[in-house]
Automatic annotation (TrEMBL):
It holds the Pfam family Ammonium_transp. Residues 41-434 form the Ammonium transporter AmtB-like domain. The lineage of its organism: Bacteria, Pseudomonadati, Bacteroidota, Sphingobacteriia, Sphingobacteriales. Its main location: membrane. It is found in: Cell membrane; Membrane. The keyword Ribosomal protein does not apply. InterPro entries: Ammonium/urea_transptr, Ammonium_transpt, Ammonium_transpt_CS, NH4_transpt_AmtB-like_dom. This is Ammonium transporter. SUPFAM superfamilies: Ammonium transporter. Belongs to the ammonia transporter channel (TC 1.A.11.2) family.
């Protein structure tokens, strides 16, 4: 038995010891609590829908890779539901939503080991649902974000190194971005940046980390790319689209008019993007494909995520179409540049997130959501657009260069790439002793 074999299980032993030392049995009682059963019921459902997105992503990515890497690719998504949950419960939620430290991170002791989750306490911005539910809802966002990155280094990363990288990513990149954007005292929140459900926090951070990963790990030895199961891709798209209603409509914080509006804009943007991808392919002389329709639908979902609760339904139509065309063009650019982002995570999630973020600042209007204090550029006001431009540059640089640093640190702790022999054999067999 080696130290490398002992450390993974040893971390679970430490978690057990921490749970014994900090059982978090204190009950918080708030006078005149406003917890609403309807809002609570919807958020319970929304949290479950968002969790479903991660298995959906596993099918989406798993169908795109070669047969010898399907299991490993799907497991890279699935395992996030285990590992990230443990981190979140111990101190991750505190880093993202704990007491503010400098506008960039939360105090890790605020909700350490889910302290304060019993009773009728609430998160200030969502006063009608228990804080424990808010913590679990936000957990699902933290789970899927590192899973999104996996498409960039699919078919060539060691599983143990991957676990180290996503641990570091959630702590060093995701949690600070979530705090800066969604905590009332966060630096981006104070700038007036609007991110309804994760365009900056989830998709831009994952997209830029994906580009950094593709550049750092380099190209696969075998450049052929034959999807193993397009039917998996279609199934995964359906699960993602279904789960995304929890992602976006759930971010309204309750069963209310805003949730209905976000539900509608999510539907419209995804549908428009799916058709835009197909029709743009036809315009380029290609045949319409199931893969194209699925990728387009997901790009539309990505792009509407930051805007879902801030823009009208007609404007969501524009966001979906524009995002699909731009992402389609970026896929072509990525291919010409020879960057081996295996499943085009940066062109679809990174670029889709950035397009959505900017178009939020173009089309946001206070008639949709009173949280919009400055209307978008389309309505003749410039402050929101300027704030989003600044935030886009800052968040992009933080995610990209931060990911490069974490990749280097991970590589020093455990080599990231599998050997050429293992890569040719396939990760299912070489990393997991399993095969389809």
């Amino acid at each position: 038995m080696t130290i490398k074999q002992i450390i993974p299980f040893g971390t679970l032993v430490i978690a057990v010891i921490l749970a014994i030392l900090a059982p978090s049995t204190e009950v918080t009682t708030v006078v005149d609590s406003n917890i609403d059963t309807g809002d609570t019921a919807w958020l319970l459902m929304a949290a479950a829908l968002v969790l479903l997105m991660t298995p959906g992503l596993a099918f989406f990515y798993g169908g795109m890779v070669r047969k010898k890497n399907v299991i490993s690719t799907m497991l890279q998504s699935f395992v996030c539901m285990g590992l990230i949950t443990i981190i979140w419960v111990v101190f991750g939620f505190s880093l993202a939503f704990g007491d503010d430290i400098g506008g960039i991170i939360g105090d890790p002791s605020t909700f350490y080991m889910m302290k304060g989750m019993l009773g009728n306490a609430t998160w200030p911005a969502l006063p009608t649902i228990p804080i424990a539910l808010f913590a679990m809802f936000q957990l699902k966002f933290a789970v899927i974000t590192p899973a999104l990155i996996t498409g960039a280094f699919a078919e060539r990363i060691k599983f143990n190194a991957y676990l180290i990288f996503i641990t570091l990513f959630v702590i060093v990149i995701y949690a600070p971005l979530a705090h800066a954007t969604w905590h009332p005292e966060g630096i981006l929140a104070k700038m007036g940046v609007l991110d309804f459900a994760g365009g900056t926090v989830v998709h831009m951070s994952a997209g830029w980390a994906a580009l950094a990963s593709a550049l750092y790990l380099g190209k696969r030895k075998e450049q052929e790319h034959t999807p193993s199961r397009i039917s998996y891709v279609i199934l995964g798209t359906g699960l993602l689209w279904f789960g995304w209603f929890g992602f976006n409509a759930g971010s309204a914080g309750g069963a209310n008019e805003l949730a209905a509006s976000a539900f509608a804009t999510t539907t419209t943007a995804s549908a428009a993007a799916a058709m835009a991808w197909i029709f743009f392919d036809i315009l380029k002389g290609k045949k319409p494909s199931a893969m194209g329709a699925c990728i387009g639908a997901v790009v539309g979902l990505v792009a509407i995520t930051p805007a879902a609760g801030f823009v009208t339904i007609p404007h969501s139509l524009i966001i979906g179409i524009v995002a699909a065309v731009i992402s389609n063009i970026l896929v072509i650019w990525r291919t010409k540049k020879g960057i081996d982002d295996t499943l085009d995570v940066f062109p679809c999630h990174g670029v889709g997130g950035m397009v959505g973020m900017l178009l939020t600042s173009v089309f946001a209007h206070s008639s949709v959501n009173s949280a919009v204090t400055t209307n978008g550029l389309f309505f003749g006001e410039t402050n929101l657009f300027t704030a989003h431009l600044i935030a886009l540059v800052g968040a992009s640089a933080f995610a990209f260069f931060g990911a490069l640093l974490l990749l280097k640190v991970t590589d020093m702790l455990a080599p990231l790439r599998v050997s050429e022999k293992d890569e040719v054999l396939g990760l299912d067999a070489s990393q997991h002793d399993e095969e389809l």
